[in-house]
Design goal:
Bound molecules: NADP nicotinamide-adenine-dinucleotide phosphate
Number of helices: 8
Length: 214
């Protein structure tokens, strides 16, 4: 697939690198330094390049939105028309201090994004895991037992695309249902963040759902 990365920081930089290593064509965009985007592309391999958000979005089979909530309008403005596109978002609707959700319970960041992009197919994915665990999960991707990642969305094709990207990174995709489930998965991320960043055990944390039969 051709994947446009909108926001090449901790999440976008790492996920884009892993998508490229899994064989996808990747365009890294939206960082404050063009040098950083070029370096990311070089390290990610021959199928990656740096570009502007408009180039990342053009012809992409999927775009990954990975910016702070306060930058969403800016990056979408630069990306241009995303009609018909699969938009995978890991962006969380956090306040400026990153201490709390600014949208929750009756809506979610992913649903607000879908309202902002009514002609795109939004899937919420990857937001429930810390960036620090991504490379470790990718390294172990051929193991039979893999950690889970929740995803949700309203468009079947877009969900299929997101699920295959989740698998490529090394997680087991767990379909949480329609996009409105993001109003529950997004707060779950704050539990994960607490376990990752506010205990002494380190941020390399993933989770796994299991079905237990009697
Ligand atoms: N980090 C995590 O573990 C994690 C986990 C789950 C969900 N999330 C969510 O994922 C989203 C991205 O998080 P992140 O940690 O990857 O953030 P980040 O590291 O700050 O990356 C954001 C990207 O946006 C770029 N950017 C910011 N302001 C800009 C501007 N004015 N012009 C151009 N580029 C600009 C940054 O540029 P620079 O590279 O120059 O800084 C960076 O590439 C957030 O919504 C966050 O809540 C993060």
């Amino acid at each position: 697939m051709q994947i446009g990365i909108l926001g090449s920081g901790l999440m976008g930089g790492k996920l884009g690198t892993l998508f490229a290593r899994a064989g996808h064509d990747v365009v890294f965009s939206y960082a404050r330094s063009e040098q950083k985007l070029k370096r990311l592309a070089r390290n990610a391999g021959p199928t990656a390049r740096a570009g502007k958000p408009g180039e990342a979005a053009a012809d992409a089979d999927a775009v990954l939105l990975a910016v702070h909530w306060s930058r969403v309008n800016d990056v979408l403005g630069q990306a241009g028309d995303l009609s018909g596109r699969v938009v995978v978002t890991c962006s969380m609707p956090m306040n400026a201090a990153d201490t709390d959700l600014v949208v929750a319970h009756t809506s979610s960041g992913a649903e607000e994004l879908a309202t902002r992009l009514p002609r795109s197919h939004v899937v919420s994915a990857f937001n429930t895991v810390p960036s620090e665990v991504l490379f470790g999960v990718f390294k172990r991707r051929r193991r039979a037992v893999r950690p889970s990642v929740l995803y949700c969305g309203d468009d079947a094709h877009a969900k299929k695309v997101a699920a295959s990207l989740i698998s490529d990174v090394g997680f087991e995709p767990v379909d949480a249902g329609p996009l409105r489930m993001a109003r529950y998965t997004e707060p779950f991320t704050l539990v994960i963040a607490r376990l990752a960043y506010e205990t002494k055990r380190g941020p390399e944390l993933a989770y796994r759902f299991e079905r237990i039969r009697n």
